[in-house]
Amino acid sequence: SGIRNVAFHRLQVKGPRKTGALIVPRHTREILNKYEARNEAMPVAIFIGHHPLYYMAAASTGPFEMDELELAGGLIGESARVVKCETNDLDVPYDAEIVLEGRILPNVREEEGPFSEFHDYYVAGMGKNPVVEIDCITRRRDAIYKAIQNGSEVEGCVFHKVPFGVAVYNHIKNIGGYVQLHNVLVLPGLFGVVVQMTPRFYGEAKQVLMGVLSSPILHPKIAIAVDEDVNIFNYWEIIWAVNTRCNPAEDMVVIPGSRVHPMDPTGFEPVPPGGPYWHRVGGKVIIDATKPPLCAGVESRRSYERLKPMGWQSVRLEDFLPK
Q: What domains appear along the chain, each with residue ranges and CATH number?
């Protein structure tokens, strides 16, 4: 198609010229399906070591036509410098430290995993997965091998959280025509999202949270809405809002039997990895921890105003501790 696709995929080293590959049902899988339907190997290029925004671009979710290399250039503020591979027609970043060129073998599957994943567990994606054969390695002189640590709240997860949050924000900001939206936060483990908003109407927060669970990002299964007076970057405040502003009988909705992320260890896996229909099924929940909406009037909202002792922010514990 001429459309360049860049994405994160885990690669288990199986030998000097062979790796396994876990490919979730997204754009790379769609491309691989077309090659395998013709029983042809799919050319791939794996670049290691570059500007961090290249990794963030690779973790971004957009339409199939989105060029992640162009996105990386836009994030950096300059055109992406690329060069052709030695053994195939793929473009790779000119300044990459190391490039592995190879092919995903058509309709070949081997045992792959276990791998430590973004949610701190091994229990995801293991099974019969595609195989990559390496044809060529190019590198810079004195190349630096840049390893990306994976796990909750470490480097690999952070690269995903920022573009995930952007995708969710853009998806929900115009639900119902307009949302008084302030910010979003992707929670540790990537399966939860907190939305900071000012609801205008009864039911608007729930409507927005349903949008979170049906956004282009498949990860969220827990969506929480809080008001603008809650600091969503302080987890204690999120818990406080749920504790004091959420009536579970009315403000929580559990959605059973929904498609969840295939790496969600709590979901049921009816189809194993390795094929085009790998997925998991589980539950999702929305939690409305907001005050009464603006249409309820000032008095209804005033009863939920936060009260603090006078001068409480001026007291610092360190001022009373011995030097």
A: 13-139 (2.30.110.10), 155-305 (3.40.1670.10)
